[in-house]
Amino acid sequence: MLDILRVRVSWRVAFQGVLGLVYASPALADWGEPWGTLVWGAGVPAVPLLDGWGLSLLLIAVCLVGAYWTRRSRPGLAVSSLVVALVIPLAVAAGTVTVPNTFINGTAADADAVNANFDAVEAAVNDNDGRITTAQSTADANAAGISLSAPVISGNTSNISTNTAGISSSATAISGNTSNISTNTTAISGNTTSISSLASLSDAQALEIAALQAQLGALEALVESYHPPRFIACLDGLTVADNETGLLWERKTGTFDGSFPASGFCETAAGGCPDRHDVNSRYEWSNSGTVADGNAYTDFLVNLNAGSGFGGHSDWRLPIISELQSILVGPGVTTVATNADPPDTASGANATGQPTTCSAAPCIDPDFAAIGGPTASSLYWSASSDATNPIRAWGATFNNGSVSNTLRGNDGFVRAVRAGSCSS
Predict the structure, then answer these.
(1) pLDDT on residue 99
(2) Structural domain span for residue 135
């Protein structure tokens, strides 16, 4: 390191310094002046400016000299040659000053023409100055990346040795991987044998899989075709839930005797009905003939909602006309109860798809009849009154499946309902 960087004062050092300045002078000099002015000063014989071919030859020569000094371990001169080689192309790329106006000696010059010449010179100078600045920055950046320290080569030698050891280890690893590949090949061969054994069972497995798929298809078809029943008998034995409408109906008891009038007719004066859930018990909608003050309200519903309530509920009511239509069968299913009060937009809509014909009385949905207890083949009151006639109310007649409005003072059958389910 010290031998390389030691500077010895001798004719070689002086020659190298002068030669470095001579190299750099054409690149750093103002190219419009005689070559060498910056080195030797003014008053020396003018040296013609090198043209493009001359600068190209000079660049090649400088590069060769730089390579020579690098080979001879002369970093100072090598760097100088590199800087000159980077800057010399400016001479070729430098802009040429074009003077737009020419003046004749002894004649007057127009000020605008003179100013135009100065503007052209200024533009050319600024252009060349920018080129020189760019070249200088490039040269500084390249020079900064050059290391003059010889021990780095020694360190790299150690790295090369280390890398050689790494290559040797990698070769060993490759050899190990080769063994693994051989082992994996054996395993693949064994798996191939296993696959061959499985292939021999494919017929039996195919039959078993086909049978399982058939069973699965049957189960899927069963699930798709299954629908929960619309009507469910609640465990309390007192009520029936309708999954379609979300209604909970009172379940009736006894056997309809078909007698009119009979002991089942409930008169308030006689102390009320003996059994309010008996299918034969009948009630009036109104005592006065106009308002809901009949024993269907004052006896039947009052007693169902007393205490803890029938079936544990105390919100029982008479159904509106469309709710009666949802369990009716016959032409009355699609009859619109006009002027119903309260308004009943679901009347006649047949949302639950009831049949519009009835083959035998009572005309009630057979699924409901199977669990809802007996139904009288007669008129059942609804809570829907006739808004245009204060003495009439709507009802469903289960003997022929029709819907009609009837005098409120007449006796009729009732079945209580509420919104809910078996558990609510």
Answers:
(1) 65
(2) 2-100+110-149
Residue 244 belongs to some domain of the structure: yes
Q: What's the DSSP call for residue 328?
A: B
Tell whether 285 and 370 lie within a shared domain: yes
| Contact in structure between 236 and 402 (CB atoms under 8 Å) | no
For the chain, the domain total comes to 3
Note the pTM of the prediction, 2 decimals. 0.49
Whether the predicted pLDDT of 217 surpasses 70? yes
Specify the length of the chain in residues: 424
- C-alpha span between 417 and 204 (Å, rounded): 60
Tokens of 233: 């008998």
325 and 309 in one domain?
yes
Task: Give the span between the Cα atoms of 406 and 403, in whole angstroms.
Answer: 10
DSSP symbols for 30-70: -TTS-TTHHHH-TTSPP-PPP-HHHHHHHHHHHHHHHHHHH
For residues 182-212, b (16+ Cβ closer than 10 Å) or e, as one string?
eeeeeeeeeeeeeeeeeeeeeeeeeeeeeee
Q: What is the pLDDT of residue 302?
A: 95
127 shares a domain with 160:
no
pLDDT > 90 in the chain, percent = 39
Amino acid at 98: T
Question: pLDDT tens-digit profile of 342-383?
Answer: 999 999 999 999 999 999 999 999 999 999 999 999 999 999
